[in-house]
Amino acid sequence: MRSNDEIMDILDRLKEEQDLSVSEIARRVGMAKSAVSRYFNRTREFPLNRVDDFAKAFNVKPEYLLGIDFPKPTNIVFPEKITKIPMIGTIAAGVPILAEQNIDDYLPVVESSVPKGKIIALSIQGNSMSPGIPDKSNVLIRLQPDVEDGEIAAVLVNGNTEATLKRVKRQNGLMMLIADNPEYQPIIVTKDLPARIIGKAVQVIYNL
């Protein structure tokens, strides 16, 4: 089977041969342009679970992209239905949280494991919530405007343009955003440093 770089080298060549833009490729595979761009500039691994979509977009066989010389079985039965959770990146100011321009990618998860409610995913960068929520893990967030004291929430900060994950504590009329990692100082919400809760952390997904 080909490596990530080998697959992307083939897609680069097909992209040039067929004179396709990243926007057109994203439209054909049903993904955000920003996500597809990351595959082509090698800042994110090619999603093997989407190989069929990319093969169809370029009018080639999945086996060709993967570098395997046997036909892909047509009678595979998946025991669970897979659903795609929108992954939210940097937030466009004033734009609804689930607007297309705010979605970086989609996280495939088993549908039966997804909590009830409207769910988004955040990709965690950094270790402020470790060890419970490690760096590079994905956290499912149920959209809701408030959480109980002590619960972990996705919170919009920096002028409602960035989503961060912190534990919410309230004391003497103040709301504080607390990291589980004691090396990080609490963030105190004020008029000058406003914040808005967008949802509650309900599930953590990471690779061992």
Please, could you describe this protein's structure?
By secondary structure, this protein is an alpha+beta fold. The chain has 2 domains: 4-66, 434 Repressor (Amino-terminal Domain), CATH 1.10.260; 82-205, Ribbon (Umud Fragment, subunit A), CATH 2.10.109.10. The protein is built from 5 helices and 9 strands. The protein has helices at 4-17, 22-29, 33-40, 51-57, 62-66, and strands spanning 82-88, 103-110, 119-123, 138-143, 152-157, 162-171, 174-178, 187-188, 196-205. The strands form 2 sheets. The protein has a 7-stranded antiparallel beta sheet with strand order 3-4-9-5-6-7-8, with no helix packed on it. Strand 5 and strand 6 form a beta hairpin. Helix 2 (22-29) packs across helix 3. The two termini are 23 Å apart. The mean pLDDT is 88.
SSE map:
Blueprint: H1 4-17, H2 22-29, H3 33-40, H4 51-57, H5 62-66, E1 82-88, E2 103-110, E3 119-123, E4 138-143, E5 152-157, E6 162-171, E7 174-178, E8 187-188, E9 196-205
Helix pairs in contact: 2-3
